[in-house]
């Protein structure tokens, strides 16, 4: 399974493509379950990059754990949640993101 991620150009915040826009939490991201869905997300990301909405557009691997979308790689977990040594900072400090580790 994959999701589309990028950094919003206006403020640098990590975002994930969700339902026609960019969400600030990975849990809302549109999931690609097959190659056709991945291709669709890549095309959306390319267009958003070309329109200067986002930068560093990538498809990343995710898994669903206890109903929550979780990035596979550590780098992406940090982008999704925040610093690993200060859980009181970043997105992980928000109750809406408490399930992301």
Automatic annotation (TrEMBL):
Q: Name one Pfam family in it.
A: DUF2849
The family database entries (InterPro entries) matched by this protein are listed as: DUF2849 (IPR021270)
- The identity of this protein, by name, is DUF2849 domain-containing protein
Q: Which organism is it from?
A: Mesorhizobium hawassense
């Amino acid at each position: 399974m994959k999701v589309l991620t990028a950094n919003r150009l206006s403020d640098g915040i990590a975002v994930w493509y969700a339902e026609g826009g960019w969400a600030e939490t990975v849990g809302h991201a549109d999931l690609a379950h097959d190659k056709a869905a991945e291709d669709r997300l890549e095309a959306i990301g390319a267009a958003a990059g070309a329109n200067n909405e986002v930068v560093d557009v990538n498809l990343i691997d995710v898994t669903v754990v206890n109903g929550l979308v979780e990035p596979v790689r550590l780098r992406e977990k940090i982008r999704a949640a925040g610093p690993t040594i200060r859980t009181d900072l970043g997105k992980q400090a928000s109750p809406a993101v408490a399930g992301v580790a």
